[in-house]
Amino acid sequence: MTATSTITAVTSTETVSGSANGAATVDDTSCPIFNVTANIKANDGTANCVGDKGALIPCDCPPNLNIFTPFLSMVIQAGSVFPAGSSIANQLTRLDTCTVALQNFRGGLGSGNGCPIVATKWKELRTVLQFGG
């Protein structure tokens, strides 16, 4: 039996818009879906949960979109590039920005206080996009 995995890319050209004051706005569809469910306990006797490919992650990872999306918006307002186009380059740039937000959403930019990339399937998505989508 062969296991398969579906990785969803961000292809919308409407993921970013400008608010009345010119600040970037985002919604719950601005980043690829996490493809990992929070609070799936590891069977190793620890308080850890399971992320991508069995990696141990904090149980509150990935974050709820009600927490993550506003922080992503702040990251973009702080100057991170988040193009609206659907090209592979644009999707990779958005994925990079989403990854920075994921890894810093608890403590602010540069804090490293967030969720590890293995709380998502974004590494696999990056590989798919890099090899032509």
Main sheet properties? 2 strands, antiparallel
Q: State the assembly state of the protein chains.
A: single chain
**Span of the ends, CA to CA:** 25 Å
Number of E strands: 4
The H/E string reads EEEEHHH
Look at the helices and sheets and give the structural class. mainly alpha
Alpha plus pi helix count: 3
Radius of gyration: 15 Å
What would you call the shape?
Answer: globular
Strand order of the largest sheet: 1-2
Work out the strand percent: 5-15%
Task: Work out the helicity level.
Answer: 25-40%
Mean pLDDT across every amino acid position: 84
* Uncertain stretches of 5 or more adjacent residues: 1-15
Can you give a write-up of this model?
With 133 residues, the protein is mainly α. Strand 3 and strand 4 form a beta hairpin. It has helices spanning 65-77, 88-104, 122-130; strands spanning 17-18, 24-25, 49-50, 56-57. It contains three helices and four strands. It has a domain at 61-130.
Q: How would you summarize this macromolecular structure in one to three sentences?
A:
This protein has 133 residues and is mainly alpha-helical.
Strand and helix map with partners:
Layout: E1 17-18, E2 24-25, E3 49-50, E4 56-57, H1 65-77, H2 88-104, H3 122-130
Antiparallel strand pairs: 1-2, 3-4
Q: What brief labels describe this structure?
A:
133 residues, 3 helices, mainly alpha, 6% strand, two-stranded antiparallel sheet, globular, disordered N terminus, two-stranded antiparallel ribbon
